[in-house]
Amino acid sequence: MEFSAQMIAGLVGGTIAGDPQVSVSDFAKIEEGRPGCISFLANDKYEHYIYTTESSIVLVNDSFEPKQEVKATLIKVPNAREAVASLINIYVSMKPKPKGIDSTAFIDPTATIGKDVYIGPFVAIGAKAVIGDGCVLHPHVTVGAGAVIGKDTEMYPNSVVYHGCKVGERCILHAGSVIGADGFGFEPTEDGYKKIAQIGIAVLEDDVEIGANTCVDRAVMGETIIRKGVKIDNLVQIGHNCEISSHTVMSAQVGVAGSTKIGEWCMFGGQVGIAGHATIADRTMAGAQSGIPNSVKKPNQELMGTPAIDPRVWWKAQAVVKQLPDMWTSMNRMKKEIEELKARLHELGSNGE
């Protein structure tokens, strides 16, 4: 489907500089632009590409003023990044969703299947499971007995929702994600570690997205809860009995130990680690590889390092770390000089001088 510059400007509330009738049917990065594509410029570091790009249309911020001739038609908007995200979402929503149930899928006779669903090859749906209207289950998805999948949720290949767990509406579970595996619960004994049965469930509220190969463990008792609008990247571990509050986001390889409560609108960079039984205040922001060993009680804090501290203090400390080898050498030299002076003073005192 093609869209003219005039149509796009109407969708994003932009103003046109160039040919309003030029049309596009695809997206491209500005440095890889092709005729018939739309690109965007939101970072000044990429400005030089706008003068050479082959894209037919480029979304730019209202403040952008070209320094030389631009071949592409420009659409000026308040925020080019937000505008292109909006257009991509519109573009994706216009693609028809698959429907139908593949003959190789196994659906227990007691399961409830909604309307307009797609259940792909080799999907397995257990006893008394519920699949909501408009759900899309790609090949090899597994939905355990008694699990509930809310309407318009999409599960990609090999994602798994264990028995009894609940997934809300409009959720996305990427390939290999696992909702409701046992939490890491073991009791040490003289003969080794005795498994503690995990009899709770995991719950995802509406509009949650779970990345590929991410695990949300079921609770020992009660629920592990991922609240509305949470977005979790690939390869993240959420331990048993955690609660992740609404609109929090986590980058790849974040690890959250069991029984931790995380507030709303928090942001965690890649490989952040959070200790168990901690409480993290709303709008906490932790930089990549930060380690949070205790509760964060004050909201709106930025943290960095291990243990996580104020980023400004952490960066100052890192500047000192670079100097430690020279400081160590200097300290040893001064220590030697002090010992020599002490010996000399002792010698002088012994001679009565």
Summarize the structure in words:
- This protein has 353 residues and is of the alpha/beta class.
- Among the domains are: 3-93, MurE/MurF, N-terminal domain (Udp-n-acetylmuramoylalanyl-d-glutamate--2,6- Diaminopimelate Ligase, Chain: A, domain 1); 323-353.
- The chain is built from four helices and 39 strands.
- The strands form six sheets. It has an eleven-stranded parallel sheet, with no helix packed on it. Strands 9-12-15-18-21-26-29-32-35-38 form a ten-stranded parallel sheet, with no helix packed on it.
- A hairpin with a 2-residue loop joins strand 22 (186-189) and strand 23.
- The protein is flat.
- The termini are far apart.
- The mean pLDDT is 95.
Please give a quick description of this structure:
The protein is α/β, with parallel strands linked by helices and 353 residues long. The chain contains 4 helices and 39 strands. Among the domains are: 3-93, Udp-n-acetylmuramoylalanyl-d-glutamate--2,6- Diaminopimelate Ligase, Chain: A, domain 1 (3-Layer(aba) Sandwich); 323-353.
The tally of strands reads 39
Q: Specify the overall morphology.
A: flat
What name goes with the CATH superfamily of the domain at 3-93?
MurE/MurF, N-terminal domain
**Average of the residue pLDDT scores:** 95
End-to-end Cα distance, whole Å, is 101 Å
In CATH, the topology of the domain at 3-93 is named Udp-n-acetylmuramoylalanyl-d-glutamate--2,6- Diaminopimelate Ligase, Chain: A, domain 1
Q: What's the architecture of the domain at 3-93 in CATH terms?
A: 3-Layer(aba) Sandwich
Low-pLDDT segments, ≥5 res: none
Helical residue percent?
10-25%
Count of alpha/pi helices: 4
Radius of gyration: 29 Å
